[in-house]
């Protein structure tokens, strides 16, 4: 399922500012800090994130033309803010949701599979 663009626009301007205030306390939410590929501006996007053995998987709900996804794939610095920690991320790659599922830790895999976004997942490696 892909979320309609009009919902994405609403979320960007209304829901996301509210969500950023609660992401530090909820287990599968995090705020992804990334740099605009054209503007150079810093953005903070709240997203559902799922831990993998070497980083995180993020389901792509608005399609692969989503700005946050294109910004991360452009290679700028990417940091996940989760539960009071700032986690630098590298090696972004897009895979199918099915390819990402076995990489998600068992505790989060049920929610990952149940969530209706099925277009793709972004895998990121935690920088060491």
Summarize the structure.
InterPro entries: F420H2_quin_Rdtase, Split_barrel_FMN-bd. Helix content is 30%, strand content 36%. With 128 residues, it is an alpha+beta fold.
Task: Describe this structure as you would to a colleague.
It is a single chain. The chain is of the alpha+beta class. The chain contains 4 helices and 6 strands; from the N terminus they run H-E-E-E-H-E-E-H-H-E. The chain has helices at 5-22, 67-73, 97-100, 106-114, and strands at residues 29-35, 42-51, 55-60, 78-82, 85-95, 120-126. A 6-stranded antiparallel barrel has the order 1-2-3-6-5-4. A hairpin with a 3-residue loop joins strand 2 (42-51) and strand 3 (55-60). The longest helix is centred in the first third of the chain and has 18 residues, at 5-22. The mean pLDDT is 87. This is Nitroreductase family deazaflavin-dependent oxidoreductase. It comes from Mycolicibacterium porcinum.
Helix share bin = 25-40%
Radius of gyration from the CA trace?
13 Å
Structural class: alpha+beta
Please tally the β strands and state the result: 6
Characterize the main sheet: 6 strands, antiparallel, barrel
């Amino acid at each position: 399922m892909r979320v309609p663009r009009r919902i994405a626009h609403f979320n960007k301007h209304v829901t996301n500012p509210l969500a950023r205030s609660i992401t530090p306390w909820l287990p599968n939410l995090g705020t992804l800090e990334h740099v605009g590929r054209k503007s150079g501006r810093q953005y903070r996007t709240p997203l559902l994130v799922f831990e993998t053995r070497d980083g995180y998987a993020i389901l792509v709900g608005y399609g692969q033309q989503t700005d946050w996804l294109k910004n991360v794939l452009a290679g700028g610095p990417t940091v996940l803010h989760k539960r009071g920690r700032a986690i630098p991320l590298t090696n972004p790659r897009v895979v199918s949701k099915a390819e990402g599922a076995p990489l998600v830790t068992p505790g989060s895999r049920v929610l990952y599979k149940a969530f209706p976004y099925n277009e793709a997942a972004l895998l990121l490696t935690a920088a060491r």
